[in-house]
Amino acid sequence: MEIIIGILGLIIAVLTFWYSFYKKPKEELLHLKAQFKATQKLSENLQVELENYIAKTNSADQPIFPNISFGSYLNEMKESYKENLSDELYNKLDNLNLSKSIIQSMIESLETQFSALQQIQIEIKMRGR
Fold first, then answer.
1. Residues 16, 17, 20, 23, CA torsion sign
2. Which of these, 30, 60, 75, 91, could form a disulfide with 71 (CB 3.0-4.6 Å)?
3. Which of 26, 31, 44 is nearest to 86 (CA)?
4. In the prediction, which pLDDT does 23 show?
């Protein structure tokens, strides 16, 4: 009887370890993908808004921030989009072996990007009035 209890305890410990460290965190991955798509869409929309604002106001060389022009900001935004928010990168998410902590870190990074993009979007809308 003691051997059976010991074996059951060992099986439970192994299963717990496996679920904690090796099972793919599906729910977290879905959250990451949703946050990725939301940030991607906002970036795309903001790039269009920024292009329209620059064309409308002829402000490509005007500063959006100290020492950063609208035109250079838009160019950097497009490069960042290609590197960090492309569909190619999104499609690779399922094939990467990401732990919960890495996924959480990526979600937090995307949330920070989303917030920064929203602030720029508000700034552009306020200047366009």
1. negative
2. 60
3. 44
4. 64
